[in-house]
């Protein structure tokens, strides 16, 4: 948004890995504002608010104690696992000019 010296962004990612369906979901929004501190240098602080969710289907995992010489033994009662959901907040600052930038 050049008219407001600002930038906004949206973050949305989803990933599933492994046989236990380890899933990670991130949904967030980002905002930054551009300050001119002189003719050459700019400072751009930013903020990020994000919701994330971590899930796992623990019943699909095979543990060491289940592996035998003839294959896998019957399933065991898996250890307790709760899916995790939380909110995250982050800030950042970038200083730059036409030749260089510093974080």
Question: What's the SSE blueprint?
Answer:
Elements: E1 6-17, E2 22-33, E3 35-36, E4 42-55, E5 67-68, E6 71-72, E7 84-96, E8 101-102
Antiparallel strand pairs: 1-2, 2-4, 3-4, 4-7, 5-6, 7-8
What is this structure, in a nutshell?
The chain is 0% helix and 57% strand. It is mainly beta and 103 residues long. The strands form two sheets. Strands 1, 2, 3, 4, 7 and 8 form a six-stranded antiparallel β-sheet that branches.
Fold and architecture overview:
The protein is mainly β. The protein has no helices and 8 strands. The protein has strands at residues 6-17, 22-33, 35-36, 42-55, 67-68, 71-72, 84-96, 101-102. Strands 1, 2, 3, 4, 7 and 8 form a 6-stranded antiparallel sheet that branches. A two-stranded antiparallel sheet has the order 5-6. The protein starts with 5 loop residues before the first strand and ends with a strand.
Binned strand content: over 45%
Number of domains: 1
User: Regions with pLDDT < 50 over 5+ consecutive residues?
Assistant: none
How many helical elements?
A: 0
What can be said about the biggest beta sheet?
Answer: 6 strands, antiparallel
Rg, rounded, reads 23 Å
Mean pLDDT: 84
H/E topology pattern = EEEEEEEE
Please tally the β strands and state the result: 8
Overall 3D shape? elongated
Category by helix and strand content: mainly beta
Tell me the helix content.
under 10%
| Beginning-to-end CA distance, first to last residue | 22 Å
């Amino acid at each position: 948004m050049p008219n407001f010296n600002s930038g906004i962004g949206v973050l949305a990612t989803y990933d599933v890995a492994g046989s236990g369906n380890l899933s990670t979901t991130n949904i967030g929004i980002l905002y930054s504002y551009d300050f001119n501190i002189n003719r050459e240098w700019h400072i751009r602080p930013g903020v990020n608010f994000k919701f994330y969710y971590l899930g796992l289907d623990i019943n699909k995992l095979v543990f060491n104690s289940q592996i035998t010489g003839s294959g896998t033994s019957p399933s065991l009662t898996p250890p307790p696992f709760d899916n995790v959901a939380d909110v995250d907040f982050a800030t950042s600052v970038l200083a730059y000019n036409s030749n260089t930038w510093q974080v």
